[in-house]
Here is the input.
Amino acid sequence: MSEAAQPEMMGIDPEKYETIDLPFFMEHFDDFLPDTVYDIHLHLNLEEHCAPMSEETKLKNWPSAVPRHFPAEHMMDVQHKLFPGRKTGTLAFTSPFPGNNLLALNRYLGEMAAKYDEIDALYVVSPYQSPDILESIIREGGFLGLKPYMGMASHIADINDVRIDDYLPPVQRELADDMGLIVMLHIPGLERLRDPNTIADLKRIRRDYPNIKLVIAHLGRAYTITFGRPGLEALADVEGIYYDFSANMNAEVIELALRLVGPEHLCYGSDNPIFLMRGMRETDGDRYINFTSEPYPWNTNRKPPEVEANYTLYIYEELLAFKQAAQRVGLGADDVARVMYGNAHELIRSVKL
Here is the structure.
C-alpha cells in the first residue's frame, strides 16, 4: 500500500507540538506529574476492521468525527510525546461499536498486549457471548477484563433505555467475579451517573460481585457538576469502585471525586485518540460545549481566531483540570502518583489469569 493510501489517524502536529504543546507541558506538568504514567482508558483500532461512520453520525456524536485508525506502534509514539521523559503504560481496548469487526479487533488487541510490555488489554464483550466461550477467550488472549458497552445491547430499541443488566448480564458478571477481572463500565442513559436506577444497579453489583474490579469510565459521564454531585454523593460510601477521569475536563467534578472517593480510587485515562483533538470545553447547566479549531461537522461554536490558534490538546486540558483539582484539595506528590499510575498498576497486578 502506498504512503498516500494509508488510513487517516489522529496524531500530534509537529510544529504545534514544539510551539504550543511542549511548552504547555513544561509549564504545567513537568514538575507535577510522576516519572511513570499509566493510561487506563484508550482505544486501539485498525480502520480496516471498523465500520464507516456516516456524516449524520459525525454531526450528532462528536467523538465519531475522529479518525479511528490508532495502531499500537503509533499509539506508543503518541504517549511518549505526550509525556516526555516519562515511562508510559496503557490499558487498551477497541472501540465498542456493533458495526465493527470485534473478533478481528479483539484479536489484534491481544496480540499487541502480548508483543509490547507497555500495553495491557481489555476484551470488548457482546452481552450475547456465553461465559464458557468468554472464559476461554480471556485466558487464551491474556485479557485482564471486560469492556462492555451499552450500544452492544441490540435487543433494546432505544439506547437511552438500556440498563447495565442489558449489556453486562448476570452470567458475565458471575464470570468476571469468579475470575477477579477488571470491568470498565460506561454508564448508560440520559441521566448518566445521577440516574437513581444506575446508582441502585452499581450498589447491587458491588454487593453481589465483590471480586470484580469495577472501574467507572469518564467519572460516570459526569462532565458537569450537575451530573457529578448527585451521583458521586450517592456512591461515596460504596467500597471498591474505581473511577477514571478520561474525557473529563471539569476540575470541579474531579475535585469532588477526590474529596468523596479519594485519590486511592481515581485513575488517569485519556480516551485517546479522541482527546488528541485541540480545543477546550465549557459547561452550561447540564450541557457541556466542546470548542475546537478543527473542521469537524459538529464544530459550530467558535472562539476568535487568535484564541483558536493557541489551542492545545484536549488531553492536556483534561490534565490541567486534574492538576487544578489536586491543588484545591492539597493533594501531595504521592497521591498524584497514585492517580496517574499506582492505582492502575495495582488493579493490573491483581488480575491472575
Summary: The radius of gyration is 19 Å. The chain has one domain: 3-350. The longest strand covers residues 36-43. The CA atoms of residues 98 and 152 lie 6 Å apart.
